[in-house]
Amino acid sequence: xxxxxxxxxxxxxxxxxxxxxxxxxxxxxxxxxxxxxxxxxxxxxxxxxxxxxxxxxxxxxxxxxxxxxxxxxxxxxxxxxxxxxxxxxxxxxxxxxxxxxxxxxxxxxxxxxxxxxxxxxxxxxxxxxxxxxxxxxxxxxxxxxxxxxxxxxxxxxxxxxxxxxxxxxxxxxxxxxxxxxxxxxxxxxxxxxxxxxxxxxxxxxxxxxxxxx
Length: 213
Hints:
Shape: globular
Number of helices: 7
Largest sheet: none
Order of helices and strands: HHHHHHH
Number of strands: 0
Strand content: under 5%
Distance between the termini: 48 Å
Radius of gyration: 19 Å
Structural class: mainly alpha
């Protein structure tokens, strides 16, 4: 039987499309806000479809999980870099958001992989109850992720609009709350993953000490 080509699995093909859209968005951001934000949000929306495809076609892979996470993190980071240029007074907050987002997800994914899961979205159900709800409730996960992305997108859009409609400010306020909640979850990611890594280290040290006796 021929070996399956992981790189051509449908979820990974969707992932490549997300990367192309994200890169196009970054290229357009300095000059063309409308097509730039369309490409960015379309790339973010496709994130919901690659997971469904992976489960439906039984094509979940560690490579796909890493590709998915890196695309999400890099896309958000590049948007925040642009926002730091548009809103220089808030550069430190954007930098803090980038650091928290990348560090928490990388450590969470690494600790998850060490536990043998195929994706950082597959967690131990006996773990933290907040993370359990976050990752097992698809509506919660979608609202949190999309609300967070919309908040940053609205910052970008409103900067380029001369007379924004009032409802956009209301939407931004709602998304700001979601963004703060997601930042709290990212911090929880960081703490929980750090404890997991420390537990792995402690177990390895105990195992080594037992062997040396």
